[in-house]
């Protein structure tokens, strides 16, 4: 049956980049999270995220529409429950690109979920990648880098840690994990 694969890691560690490549493969699908943050330049509603207002997000919590939800750098993020339940009935890998708080909530509800933590090669490279990405306001960028240190403390709770230095090597490492998991 479907396997839930959670990819976490500090902002800029490469989660989106890696998931985008992984989901090109057959039998790999990705959850679309709901968020109250604004879309980045290249992001379309319903593709990268479902972008909603704070009020709508709170209503969705009240209606039990999330498998997990968390606040990250001042914005809300949640994983829709229904598609996740559907995915577990299909013979696929279902990727969740979520933060450490959300990951642990899912692991509690779905203990068979595979938790992968993506690490940057080092702090300088992480900052450089976020600066080069050029998608965040200066304050958001500072907040994301501050959060990185805290998030790294959770890495030992994960089943696997992968250092995202060379992108191809990272993707191959994750493919290998999924075949053996
Ligand atoms: N292995 C790599 N080598 C060089 N650059 C990379 C690598 N992986 C990702 N990047 C680049 O680093 C930047 C951050 O990657 P990405 O947006 O995937 O991170 P993220 O973890 O999803 O961040 P966020 O949590 O903020 O969404 C992007 O510009 C991406 O192209």
TrEMBL record:
Ranges for domain Guanylate kinase-like: 2-179
Keywords of the record: ATP-binding, Kinase, Nucleotide-binding, Transferase
Any one annotated GO CC term: cytosol
UniProt EC number: 2.7.4.8
Molecular function GO terms recorded: ATP binding; GMP kinase activity
PROSITE patterns named in the record: GUANYLATE_KINASE_1, GUANYLATE_KINASE_2
PANTHER family in the record: GUANYLATE KINASE (PTHR23117:SF13), GUANYLATE KINASE-RELATED (PTHR23117)
Family: Belongs to the guanylate kinase family.
The protein, known as: Guanylate kinase
Gene: gmk
């Amino acid at each position: 049956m479907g396997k839930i694969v959670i990819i976490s890691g500090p902002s800029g560690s490469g989660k989106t980049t890696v998931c985008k490549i992984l989901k090109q493969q057959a039998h790999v699908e990705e959850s679309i999270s709901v968020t109250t943050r604004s879309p980045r330049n290249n992001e379309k509603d319903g593709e990268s995220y479902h972008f909603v207002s704070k009020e709508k997000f709170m209503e969705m919590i009240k209606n039990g529409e999330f498998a997990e939800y968390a606040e990250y750098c001042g914005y809300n993020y949640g994983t829709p429950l229904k598609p996740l339940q559907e995915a577990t009935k299909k013979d696929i890998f279902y990727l969740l690109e979520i933060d450490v708080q959300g990951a642990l909530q899912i692991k509690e509800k779905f203990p068979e979920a595979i938790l992968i933590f993506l690490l940057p090669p080092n702090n300088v490279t992480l900052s450089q990648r976020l600066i080069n990405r050029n998608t965040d306001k200066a304050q958001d960028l500072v907040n994301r880098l501050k959060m990185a240190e805290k998030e790294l403390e959770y890495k030992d709770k994960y089943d696997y840690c992968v250092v995202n230095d060379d992108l191809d090597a990272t993707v191959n490492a994750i493919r290998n994990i999924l075949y053996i998991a």
